[in-house]
Amino acid sequence: MTASRPKSVFNAHGHDHSACISDALTRAELLCNEQGLRLTAIRRRVLELIWDNHRPTKAYDLLHTIGQERGNAAPPTVYRALDFLLDAGLIHKIESLNAFIGCDAGHGQGHPKFLICRSCERVAEIPSPEVDHALAHEAKRAGFKIDHETIEIGGTCRACASEA
Amino acid sequence: MTASRPKSVFNAHGHDHSACISDALTRAELLCNEQGLRLTAIRRRVLELIWDNHRPTKAYDLLHTIGQERGNAAPPTVYRALDFLLDAGLIHKIESLNAFIGCDAGHGQGHPKFLICRSCERVAEIPSPEVDHALAHEAKRAGFKIDHETIEIGGTCRACASEA
DNA sequence: TTTACAAATGTTATATATTAACGATTCGGC
DNA sequence: GCCGAATCGTTAATATATAACATTTGTAAA
Hints:
2 copies of one chain form a homodimer. By secondary structure, chain A is an alpha+beta fold. Helix content of chain A is 45%, strand content 16%.
């Protein structure tokens, strides 16, 4: 919980990102302790690699890195760790990119929603009770019971727009 | 533009689906004529196969069908047709399923949004100015310029819920 | 109408993404 | 220490998608 944490990942120039990583790992350990889950070495390392930056990470990038570090790693090594982290709510999958991003709990109580900058490739998780409410309203109108929401907004962040 | 067209694809029992298909193909031809695009035999057939029902269609299902019909077909055959139809706005990709659905223009002026029933696998394209407005508001707050929205809501439709 | 260029398609190969299946190991409770 | 469950190693298969280059076709200018 460092003062240098940026308000938005889109203004992340020179922020103390090591704090993001260590905070995420600390939160993961707390959550696993609370829930009796085992944050094994592989799982922890995968989470750490995903938090290496604020860009979504691809499964095969993880596979290559883990493979180099351990001398061996097959796809299931990575996908099992990803499944665990997804189930634990520690990461999210970005469907439109086939990639994974650390959960920073920025969605609050609602479903996660993402702003994805196509220029810097950073992804911000945003809360929006307004969007949640509007979608709940649409679902109710259609008699549709919502289980899961995939909300991924692609575009250009403020920082990249002002650079252009 | 047939009277038997259902209000929702979730209440599509016994509707005259051939009208859905022919309407979609007619609209495609009009749009291509207007815009100077070429709706070739392969592209037209792929669009027709996607409109075969109101469920998302996978690329390799198309590949197998086209392959049988033509005696030959490699992945690029299908993916190039899909790219064309996507660019023309005639189909949408459902990112969370890696599958494709015909555009029925049900999103009106806004970005497309989908209700996806996990039980009957039907997909409904819904308009929602309310959701569009809420997302535009969030984007403005973040200084984010929206290019594209992926909004895919998974759950259970009314018809499937009442069957259970 | 021939030529020439661009668009579309054919073809081969490969990269990326994901899961199945089964054996070996390790962890935690008894 | 023993046992069952969870985790991991390993091999293989399946699913999704793109790169690269050759060939053909459509179209419009010369």
